[in-house]
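User: Just a sanity check before I run the rest of the batch. Below are the structure tokens for the first item. I only need the designed sequence back.
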């Protein structure tokens, strides 16, 4: 399924503007200040660096920006007004945040199907996020402390990456109080020491498709039952053992 922002602005009757298969930069942008719509969709566009100058050209009326396909390998986020940003299969490998812009307005951030290998510390500045979808990238290490300041974050999707480690450095008792739904399925995790204690408000979780040790699965099952968490999905073709719907391996 393609990533697409679904903004508030539809409710206000503002339109959707599309640009397809064009090359954009700050000098020849095809983005005219004041003429953009509530939702802007760029499809198949070439943008070497989507930075502060292009974000400024969006204008304050653009509440939702969807970047689909094409070639947009670098983004430096610099908007004080966007509500939603979706970046799907653009070849993105670098996502930074311009520290001179407040970022409390952004509620939804979707970055999917990109060669993104690591998360910038600047991501922690998105204090207003409700939904963060980082699925189907190439992440391998994720620091939970990045999400500590996101006190409205309900949905965190880290599925279908290459994650082998998910935790804090140095080890701390992080508490992500607002997260209700957590997806870490289809990664390379063997254990997740901060689960579920780091998520005291968790309602649902997806854990399948990893390389869990059987010792971790046994402990996690007890914690899941004790906390009343709903687990979605199950492993079926297991080369190792199967406990409570999850494949696990002795180790």
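Assistant: Here's the designed sequence for the first item:
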């Amino acid at each position: 399924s393609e990533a697409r922002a679904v903004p508030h602005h539809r409710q206000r009757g503002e339109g959707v503007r599309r640009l397809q298969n064009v090359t954009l930069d700050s000098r020849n942008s095809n983005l005219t200040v004041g003429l953009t719509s509530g939702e802007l969709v760029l499809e198949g566009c070439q943008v070497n660096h989507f930075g502060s100058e292009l974000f400024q050209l969006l204008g304050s009326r653009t509440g939702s920006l969807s970047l689909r396909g094409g070639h947009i390998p670098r983004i430096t986020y610099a908007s004080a007004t966007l509500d939603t940003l979706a970046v799907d299969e653009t070849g993105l490998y670098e996502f930074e945040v311009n520290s001179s812009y407040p970022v409390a307005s952004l509620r939804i951030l979707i970055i999917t199907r990109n060669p993104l290998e690591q998360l910038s510390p600047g991501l922690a500045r998105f204090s207003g996020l409700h939904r963060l979808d980082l699925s189907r990238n190439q992440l391998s290490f994720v620091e939970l402390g990045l999400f500590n300041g996101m006190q409205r974050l309900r949905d965190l999707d880290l599925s279908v990456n290459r994650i082998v480690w998910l935790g804090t450095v140095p080890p701390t008792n992080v508490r992500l109080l607002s997260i209700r739904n957590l997806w870490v399925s289809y990664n390379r995790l063997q254990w997740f020491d901060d689960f579920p204690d780091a998520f005291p408000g968790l309602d649902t979780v997806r854990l399948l498709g990893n390389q869990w040790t059987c010792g971790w699965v046994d402990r996690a099952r007890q914690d899941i039952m004790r906390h009343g968490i709903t687990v979605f999905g199950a492993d079926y073709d297991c080369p190792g053992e199967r406990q409570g719907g999850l494949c696990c391996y002795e180790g």
